[in-house]
Design goal:
alpha+beta, 7-stranded antiparallel sheet, 7 helices, 19% helix
Length: 370
């Protein structure tokens, strides 16, 4: 007897595309969890779509237009299934039928196109852990907030490779900077999660809710879709010592003007592996300026400037690795950027600066010596 399930092609293609982002394509995870599992439940008129790379998982429920036969499972190679579905017409009336004849293949029929794919053993697919209760745990605009700080994670060090959620903020840091945004997410204790692939899934989410367990962070993307990622077990660094409040001075500039200047600076910066950029606060003229100075010895030197607002009347100079400062400003939301600098008790010390945008986004960037 044939088992058949029919979907609107666009609905199936979208779910498979998202699952394919999580499904492994190589390595040990591929050996254990290759493919996308479809659990077809005719009595409930639903199909559960699952994928996992062991570290992360994806699960969504689809409601097909028709489903016949006994309950059955199909485990289909992810890249090939996704590639086929993306080529099919996806109009309102276009449908795709998956046919299970009880052999080692699944037939995919859409219009005049019929494709037979070799399937994998569905019973060998990793078991799914129980999903915790999401009640009362919400995170508005979570994806956008994660994007603001994720650039500051450090993939080379496990404990810094994810974003840190402490209930009030989403934090990311590396050896050069610390970035955070306010985010009111109720968690019993701070957690650190490497949101890698999950981060891309968040962008299409309509109602993000979160539920941490002992080992995983579960994120509901909508009422039918849940993804998860393993939590990082190592303790997150104590960041409070970096978050100072006392500064020597402050200046403000327009983000758009700064990024425009950085476009020219980068023409030189790209000639060096670790380009150093020096900021000089110049108070000599009628208008106070911030001079950006970059030199690649033996190649080029560029000096450019932009107008700043400041009540600080002395000159000040500080150097950074170019990309750090650019990322700190680029990921702000407002066009007015405030930079706090220096140490009141030691004016010659550079240390770190604080970049803020008035929306809660904050970045502490460490200066560079030599």
């Amino acid at each position: 007897m044939n088992n058949e399930v029919t979907f609107h092609t666009g609905t199936l293609a979208d779910a498979i595309s998202r699952a394919a982002r999580v499904a492994p394509t190589k390595g040990e995870a591929f050996d254990k969890a290759a493919g996308i599992l479809l659990e077809c439940q005719p009595e409930r008129n639903q199909v559960i779509v699952r994928a996992t790379n062991i570290e992360e998982s994806f699960r969504t429920i689809l409601y097909p237009t028709t489903i016949t036969g006994e309950p059955f499972k199909m485990r289909i190679p992810s890249l090939l299934l996704d590639a086929i579905l993306q080529t099919l017409p996806k109009g309102d009336d276009d449908k795709t039928i998956l046919i299970d004849r009880g052999d080692d293949k699944v037939r995919i029929k859409s219009g005049s196109t019929v494709t037979a794919l070799q399937i994998l053993d569905p019973e060998a697919f990793p078991l799914e852990e129980p999903i915790p209760d999401f009640t009362g745990v919400a995170a508005d605009q979570f994806a956008a907030l994660v994007d603001q700080v994720a650039w500051a994670t450090d993939k080379k060090h496990a404990k810094l490779s994810g974003v840190h959620i402490d209930g009030q903020r989403i934090v990311a840091c590396n050896s050069y900077c610390l970035a955070y945004v306010p985010c009111d997410v109720r968690v019993e204790q701070p957690i650190t999660a490497p949101l890698g692939t999950v981060r891309s899934l968040l962008k299409s989410a309509s109602d993000v809710r979160m539920a941490p367990s002992e080992r995983k962070l579960y994120i509901a993307l909508d009422e039918h879709t849940v993804c998860s990622t393993n939590l990082i077990a190592e303790e997150y660094p104590n960041i409070s010592a970096l978050m100072r409040e006392e500064f020597l001075g402050t200046f403000k500039f327009k983000k758009s003007a700064f990024m425009d200047t950085m476009n020219r600076v980068n023409a030189v910066a790209r000639q060096d592996r670790l380009p150093k950029i020096t900021l000089e606060l110049d108070n000599d003229g009628l208008l106070k300026q911030l001079i950006l100075d970059i030199e690649v010895p033996g190649v080029a030197r560029l000096r450019d400037s932009l107008i700043v607002e400041t009540e600080y009347d002395n000159d000040f100079s500080i150097s950074f690795t170019s990309g750090v400062l650019e990322s700190a400003v680029e990921n702000s939301k407002s066009d007015t950027i405030t930079v706090d600098f220096g140490y009141p008790d030691n004016p010659s010390k550079t240390g770190s600066i604080r970049v803020t945008d008035g929306t809660g986004y904050t970045c502490y960037a460490m200066s560079r010596r030599g």
